[in-house]
Specification:
Length: 321
C-alpha cells in the first residue's frame, strides 16, 4: 500500500480495497488527561483480576475441604462467575490501556469481531450463571430436604454449560451478520473497543437486519435471565414469609450477596460501557468475600499461613547472618 493510501486510512477515509483494520478512537479527545483514566483503569483491572483470582483459589480450597458441609454448589458457581469476570474484562481493558499509550489505536477486522463476540457472550454468560445461582438459592430455601439430591454435580455442570450455550446463542447470529457486511471506509470506531453499534455504522450496506437481530437477542438475553431470577426470588419470598424470624434471617443471609450482585449487574446497564466492563467483575469478589463466613475464614487461614511463612524466612535469614 502506498504512503498516501496509508495516511488516508489513518484519517478514516475510504480504502479502495476495503477496510482491513479499524481505528479505535476511544477517548483521544481528552489529550494528556488520558493518563488519569489510564491509571484508574489499570488499577481497577489489577484489583479485578486479583480479587477474582483469590475467589477462585478460595472456592477451590473450600470445595476440596474434607468437611462435607462446605461442599456447597454455591462455591462452584461462584468460581465460574469469577472466571467469566476475569476473561470478560480482559477482552477489552488491556487493549484500551494500550490505546491510551499510543497515538493511534488500531485493531484488525477479525480481532475486532472476536473482541465484540467474547465481550457480549461473556456478559450474557455471567447473567446465565447468576440465574443458575438464583435457582440454587431457590432449591436450598424452598426445598431443603431434596436439595442435595437435585443439585448434584451433574446438574451443576449442566447449568454452567447451559449458561455458556445461552450466551453463545444470543451473541453469535448478530455477530456473524455484522461480520459479513462490507466495510469499505471510513474505518474509525468512535469507541474504546469494538462496540457493535459503532462498528455497524461503518458498514457500506443496509444494517437494519443486523440491528433487529441484535436488539431481539439482547431482549431475549435480558428478559429470560431477569424473569427467571425474579421468579426464583418471588418463590423464595413466599416461602420465607411462612418461616420464623430466625429462619427468615438465615434465609436472607444466604441470598443477600447474590441479590446485591444481581442488582448491580442489571442497574449498572445505565452506566457507560467502559465502566460497566470493569465495575461488576470488580465488585463481585468484594461482595461475596465480605458476606460469606467460609470465604472469610479461608482468607484468614491463608493470611496466617503466609505470615507464618514470612516469619520463618525472616528467622532463617537472621540465623544465617
Amino acid at each position: 500500500m502506498s504512503t498516501s493510501h496509508r495516511s488516508s486510512s489513518v484519517n478514516g477515509t475510504r480504502e479502495p480495497d476495503g477496510v482491513t483494520f479499524f481505528i479505535l478512537q476511544g477517548l483521544s479527545s481528552l489529550g494528556d488527561r488520558q493518563m488519569i483514566l489510564f491509571v484508574i483503569l489499570l488499577l481497577g483491572y489489577i484489583i479485578t483480576q486479583g480479587g477474582n483470582s483469590m475467589i477462585i483459589f478460595l472456592s477451590d480450597q473450600i470445595i476440596s475441604s474434607t468437611d462435607p458441609k462446605l461442599h456447597s454448589p454455591m462455591y462452584f458457581f461462584l468460581a465460574n462467575l469469577s472466571f467469566v469476570d476475569m476473561v470478560y474484562t480482559t477482552t477489552t481493558i488491556p487493549k484500551m490501556l494500550v490505546g491510551f499509550l499510543s497515538d493511534v489505536s488500531t485493531i484488525s477486522v477479525p480481532g475486532c469481531f472476536l473482541q465484540m463476540f467474547f465481550f457480549i457472550q461473556l456478559g450474557i454468560t455471567s447473567r446465565g450463571i447468576l440465574t443458575a445461582m438464583a435457582y440454587d438459592r431457590y432449591l436450598a430455601i424452598c426445598h431443603p430436604l431434596h436439595y442435595t439430591s437435585i443439585m448434584t454435580q451433574h446438574i451443576q455442570l449442566l447449568l454452567i454449560a447451559g449458561a455458556w450455550a445461552f450466551g453463545t446463542f444470543c451473541t453469535l447470529p448478530a455477530n456473524l451478520i455484522t461480520w459479513h457486511q462490507p466495510y469499505c471506509g471510513p474505518n474509525v470506531v468512535k469507541h474504546g473497543w469494538g462496540d457493535p453499534s459503532s462498528v455497524r455504522r461503518l458498514a457500506c450496506a443496509d444494517t437494519s437486519v443486523d440491528n433487529t437481530v441484535s436488539l431481539s437477542l439482547a431482549l431475549v438475553a435480558l428478559l429470560t435471565t431477569g424473569v427467571l431470577i425474579l421468579t426464583s426470588y418471588v418463590l423464595i419470598g413466599i416461602s420465607v414469609s411462612r418461616m420464623s424470624v430466625a429462619q427468615r434471617l438465615k434465609a436472607f443471609g444466604t441470598c443477600v450477596s447474590h441479590l446485591t450482585v444481581v442488582s448491580i449487574s442489571y442497574t449498572v446497564r445505565i452506566i457507560v460501557a467502559v465502566l460497566y466492563a470493569a465495575l461488576t467483575p470488580f465488585l463481585n469478589p468484594v461482595i461475596y468475600s465480605l458476606r460469606n463466613k467460609e470465604l472469610q475464614e479461608s482468607i484468614r487461614r491463608t493470611l496466617v499461613r503466609f505470615r507464618s511463612a514470612t516469619v520463618s524466612v525472616t528467622k532463617d535469614i537472621s540465623t544465617v547472618s
